[in-house]
Amino acid sequence: xxxxxSGNEAIARGAYEAGCLVASAYPGTPSTEILENVINYxxxxxxxxxxxxxxxxxxxxxxxxxxxALSCMKHVGVNVAADPLFTASYTxxxxxxxxxxxxxxxxxxSQNEQDSRNYAKFAKVPMLEPADSxxxxxxxxxxxxxxxxxxxxxxxxxxxxxxxxxxxxxxxERVTGLPTPKLVKDAPKLVMLPGNARVRHPLVEExxxxxxxxxxxxxxxxxxxxxxxxxxxxxxxTYQYVREALPDASVLKLGMVWPLPHAxxxxxxxxxxxxxxxxxxxxxxxxxxxxxxIACQGKELTTLCGELSPGRIQAAFAKAGIIKVAASExxxxxxxxxxxxxxxxxxxxxxxxxxxxxxxxxxxxxxxCYTLGFMPPLNAMDTCVCMGASxxxxxxxxxxxxxxxxxxxxxxxxxxxxxxxxxxxxxxxAWNKAPATVIxxxxxxxxxxxxxxxxxxxxxxxxxxxxxxxxxELCRVLGIKHVRVVDPYDLDATRLAxxxxxxxxxxxVIITNRPCCLIKGAGRFEKGKILEVDQGKCTGCKAxxxxxxxxIEWKPNPDGNKGKAFIDPQLCTGCTVCQQLCKFNxxxxxx
Amino acid sequence: MDTTITNILLxxxxxxxxxxxxxxxxxxxxxxxxxxxxxxxxGMSQRGGSVVSHVRFGKEVFSxxxxxxxxxxxxxxxxxxxxxxxxxxxxxxxxxxxxxxxAPPSILLGQAVYPQALPEKIKAKFPDFLLVxxxxxxxxxxxxxxxxxxxxxxxxxxxxxxDGVWQQALEKMVPKKALEINLKAFEFGRGL
Lengths: 591, 192
Description:
CATH topology of chain B: Pyruvate-ferredoxin Oxidoreductase, domain 3
Oligomer: heterodimer
Domain Pyruvate/ketoisovalerate oxidoreductase catalytic (chain B): 14-190
Radius of gyration of chain A: 27 Å
Shape of chain B: globular
Helix content of chain A: 25-40%
Distance between the termini of chain A: 54 Å
CATH class of chain B: Alpha Beta
Number of domains of chain B: 1
Order of helices and strands of chain B: EHEEEHEHHEHHHH
Pfam families (chain B): POR (PF01558)
Keywords (chain B): Oxidoreductase, Pyruvate
Strand content of chain B: 15-25%
Number of domains of chain A: 4
Strand order of the largest sheet of chain B: 2-3-1-4-5-6
Radius of gyration of chain B: 16 Å
CATH architecture of the largest domain in chain A: 3-Layer(aba) Sandwich
CATH class of the largest domain in chain A: Alpha Beta
Strand order of the largest sheet of chain A: 3-2-4-5-7-6-12
Protein name (chain B): Indolepyruvate ferredoxin oxidoreductase beta subunit
Largest sheet of chain A: 7 strands, mixed
Number of strands of chain A: 22
Helix content of chain B: 25-40%
GO molecular function (chain B): oxidoreductase activity, acting on the aldehyde or oxo group of donors
Number of helices of chain B: 8
CATH superfamily of chain B: Pyruvate-ferredoxin oxidoreductase, PFOR, domain III
């Protein structure tokens, strides 16, 4: 049966067909939907982990127990999971172990565009790279087989255009007859004390050589011979771009990007007059081809930054005089007002950032919807580096500052990010007595990636009720003496809490307690009374516009007099934050 | 071999249901026997930001992304977004746009104004332009939320795909309880 699947849906399907039994992940764009689809296959035990390191360790444990196991994350998640990854490379596996890393060239939804292929080389594990959804499914299955055949974790690299692109996939059946998981003592392989690890490392190096040989004859690496003038080595979505941009070129399409198939590359290079490597981000393949002593061109033509596309590749080859492209008529783009992302109407974060701005706080921020607190008119975020860094960076910053500036430092972090890697940071801050203020924006969900459950939300990925981390108590046991919970829809209470804790020369935590306005059911978000602006009372002072709510629109007066504010009843959730800002009582419940 | 590929771009504002519309389109092309690819960006841009979905079909499709300046049909869910992405089209392309406005932040804050006379400006560049009262016709069909389906109906007339295939795609992709209204909305759009 044929279906149109996204790359992420196809990876989930591939894991199912491969007989995968355990899957663990932390949500992160563009990888999130893999696990959200795996959970639809009842044969697989799938769950969210608090972070990527834990997710990979869950999968490693399942593999050591004899099951085929999957872990998924976005590219920066692999940084968090790097510790177990590098040593799992030495131990190898029992059941097949596959790690999906989803890169985000162009940074559509990420803080950097690191190239995950470097991790495969660095950790010395093979990496497959599919070029469409059909390959996502097939390569995921193959990854499990290679993992067991070569006794290694296998990485599969996706990217935004593959994970969130859809194409046609032929569905298959789930494999049967895999060994039943059971406990097997195998300390020389699984206990990585120095004496054992020294034995394992040479096996890892031999494995890489064997995998390179495998790659030279494997069907996933293939030559498509057309003209002998131009030969292009490429992989993943870039293969699709190359086929479209350079239809006459011969192509060596790599399905395995580490280790490279040296024999096959030499064979291909000998068949073409001019050899090129076209790849997004780093010159990963190019550097290795050059190190083999084979002349080729790569980053001389294409950029190190951002995505490629058929047009960009064509333009680069035309500019270098390698191909000729007929000039086409172009419709000029005209400047129009931009439409950046914004916090939703009724978002509980909005009032907090409004008050942080007014309090002249210096906000060390973190990763989540609330990073949008950076946008005007809130303008209340001053740093954003990586998951969990808000607290530890605030803690470090106060140590460097003169006393009068110390109190301005406020770290802002969401519930899911706090549980991901913020707990260690808060422990450090309490332990070392750093007098910064921390605000945990607890909206009871991992909102930015599409509302996934987390350890404090009370539900599992499967929607079952479960234990719930008590965040205020957790802060107290970490050593924070001053922990207070505030309603972020109450602007005065929020302002008071922020001012008092900023002035306190000790570590303190404020926790906000309103759920994300997109989570319905289970007693979570409830709409309030929809508000409207009394046009007779509105003086056009624009105070309500300072929160940047998408439900409030400024309508200029055509007569040239002052305009007035309007509230869109379709968008308003009745959070009342704008109402509290109106000094003229012009905002009230809709009649 | 016929290497013709039809490139469709769906543009609008995050939250308008663009992804579902592009899924229904893709499903119809697959059912009609074509190779199909589609691509869009999820994540941050969904928070009320500008959204573009690419759908391509033909005998064999390589890139999931429509090459710059190669769009054949622009399917606009919001006027300003329709205007923003005209440069993705080839000259002579078709534009079908919903007559619907959502103000972006700078306009909400009174720092910019919504550009005037956008339909006329679009028509001047792309004579094959259809402005659809998506919301109005959807309301007539029974639910304002079916506006996207009205638009889909309007676009469908410009694609050489059998009636039955569209019905099949809608039946597969639209929840059962909303199907009747959506089939009606589709017919209203197709009748334009």
